[in-house]
Amino acid sequence: MFDFLIPAAHAQTAAGGGGAGATLMSFLPFVAVFAIMYFLMIRPQQQRQKQLKAELKALRRGDRIVTAGGVVGIVQRSREDSSEVEVEIAPNVRVTVLRETISTVLTSTAKPVNDDKSK
Q1: What is the pLDDT of residues 81-97, one digit of tens each?
Q2: Strand pairing of 93-98 and 72-78?
Q3: Which positions ≥6 away from 75 have C-beta within 8 Å?
């Protein structure tokens, strides 16, 4: 009944032998998409993470930060060897947060804030 379709199918498979060049060309778009995604998405994210890690390591008293929960505060006490940071979130309200939960350093002071309030 459909015998007229069989020779056409054999003719298509016989002519499709492109070899290694066709296989390479079929993977080229996938490689190009991965390269574009790497340079537009993955690499900038890695650079931001490296920068945040350096900022967290250099936290000092007086720096404004944002925690992962969205709480904005000012660093009151920070030790480099500790994973905890004391943050003032309101006047006379201090909380201790883990360094890893800080998502953004809004302002960074060049030197620690002076405790001398007599000026």
Answers
A1: 888 999 999 999 999 99
A2: unpaired
A3: 59, 60, 61, 62, 63, 64, 65, 85, 86, 87
